[in-house]
Amino acid sequence: xxxxxxxxxxxxxxxxxxxxxxxxxxxxxxxxxxxxxxxxxxxxxxxxxxxxxxxxxxxxxxxxxxxxxxxxxxxxxxxxxxxxxxxxxxxxxxxxxxxxxxxxxxxxxxxxxxxxxxxxxxxxxxxxxxxxxxxxxxxxxxxxxxxxxxxxxxxxxxxxxxxxxxxxxxxxxxxxxxxxxxxxxxxxxxxxxxxxxxxxxxxxxxxxxxxxxxxxxxxxxxxxxxxxxxxxxxxxxxxxxxxxxxxxxxxxxxxxxxxxxxxxxxxxxxxxxxxxxxxxxxxxxxxxxxxxxxxxxxxxxxxxxxxxxxxxxxxxxxxxxxxxxxxxxxxxxxxxxxxxxxxxxxxxxxxx
Length: 352
Prior knowledge:
16% strand; 10 strands; alpha+beta
């Protein structure tokens, strides 16, 4: 009977985890017993830590408070959950714990009511955090979870891990330039909404201000806003590639379904590729910062250059004879949020 009870509890836990797939689905109690939804912290960078006031690691409060003060204005929060499960080192009420931390460490980040982090009474938030981080039970006080602005767990840290290590990992989240770089994904689904001309102007301005060797600026840029022009050349593609179009149930156009295009050209006799690459990266990052998506395309360029029926499209771009179409940036309002694909950090070596 007891075994059946625990099996039932395990099934209930799985069902709860399935229903609550985001950190913002959870609710917790604050230090005065009021229920708080973690959706209040949406878009913030979070460091979630289980604490204790009579632990050898309690002096970590001296490191956590400066970290909080340094990055709070950039959207960083520390969520403190006292836990008495490890050596009963968090005795007393939450009010007593809060008074102790305020008096001894002058903390200003929010503290929540005492919880269990392991076992059958573990708070669902911690069950979720452990699952997301791919680890087992919490080993001791001051275990920490870093959560990104998108609500996903970035990393778990054990009690002895240095605050400096956590701060280094935080940089790609709290620094707006770095977080913009890390958040950009190639977008292949777009809303049926053209990008405003004013935004395209800003994006191109950011592009042409990218570094250029000897300031030669060996590129030209053509921004296609003419929806009919895109539709007309797309008809050529559909006629020439009916099977490919039929296989793609989401097909709208040959430019990954984007409503606008930025065409980048380089000298016909070669060179300029590096400068054009820097130009394109600036534009893609600028677009990302403005809530737009992009995808760098080479396939459509090959089609346009190899099919005589596309000459009308190239003629409209008005490309000088001494330049050639190098790549196209599809750009528009995203209709998807793809996850990041893994990167092989082993390919990087530091020569010291």
